[in-house]
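Bench notes, afternoon.
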Amino acid sequence: MRYQLLLWLLLLASVTQAEVYRCEGPNGTTFTDRPCSGEGSRIEVQDNRIGGQFDQNLPPEQPSPMPDSGAEATPVPESPCRFINSTDLRTYLIRGQVVVGMTREQVREAFGPPPETYPVPQETWIYQTDYYGKLYELTYVYFREGCVESVVYRKP
């Protein structure tokens, strides 16, 4: 009997939903569960149970303003340096990986100091990977303007 009563109470609690009102007053904006006596509006509270979409409660997107046709667009120079989010960067460094856009310091942190470097015609660092004492792979890291432009893995 007690379990049936508890089950009914749980079902009833999941079905009921409180109403929320936004009230504008001399002291500012307040929120309450009762209708306002003056200016106020009812707020629709969306169901927050597990599931749904991450963008469910976001405001609608605003259209971006069109650029003025009379103004000349200045070209942005291409650069190999790119923003690497800190979480991804930490993951790359822990795994000992080098990706396009890393700086020299980040490459040193991932691979260590370079055993071979060639400054001309393009700055290149060459790392060797040994497997059971034998040369297994060569890794070429090419830099442009202080950032990694490409990483090439080659068998010797």
